[in-house]
């Protein structure tokens, strides 16, 4: 910074103000300093800055299986929101979620001196692992409805399932079959609750759940079973990838969608509007999840003390496409 100040003909403090976007710097001076920075190839020493400010401007993120659309999109939303706020992100992606794994990941991030941590906790095991963490580290859990004494940001899974099921009932279907996600996922649990709640409230039959594992293959296997059942006219599938498998199984069995069976998914993956037929689905606003998670975390960091824990729920959006239609009489 001293070299930059010398070349630009300004003080060390003026260089600091320019680097920190301080408003009280004349445009001409700012231009001169930036030209000197470019000429010298100056880069700030973030380690030295962290020693002075006691803030690394880095946030930690712990996630599980980022090959899945939901966790990957959540991490992307968090990273973009952090960058917009002027923070870097250090990500630890775990193969399995358990107490030991989560604690090791948090310890690793703490050793890096991160200012705060976001934990993507979609499974019950992850939520339980956060229940007894030591205080002192600013932290937010995403999709961790049972995460104990931490702030939580989540999409309203129950409401999304309710929208999907009510849409199908509103089209005249007597009941709605459900292909669920894995039983230990909180999102799968919420989607089951929303689906079942609509059917019970309307006095409709509640069919047996066909369990899946989020993969197209498990959806395909469930679809093969459903295709053999003449009474099936409407299916709510717990994610779009499994819905893709259901659609493939129906096509192979000659089951017309939406002519004979209407299908609704969940997530609104980028490919869902190009499925055959284009998929009616529930969209999760991962950008909003990321922004709200970072905003809550930064409030904790800036306060420098424990704040009341927050619970923020992001509403889902319903996208109607060509995979659903009124039931044929």
Automatic annotation (TrEMBL):
SUPFAM superfamilies: lambda repressor-like DNA-binding domains (SSF47413), Periplasmic binding protein-like I (SSF53822)
GO MF term (any one): transcription cis-regulatory region binding
Keywords in alphabetical order: DNA-binding, Transcription, Transcription regulation
Identification of the protein by name: LacI family transcriptional regulator
Entry keyword Cell inner membrane: no
CDD domains named among the record's database cross-references: HTH_LacI, PBP1_LacI
Domain spans labelled HTH lacI-type: 1-53
SMART domains per UniProt: HTH_LACI (SM00354)
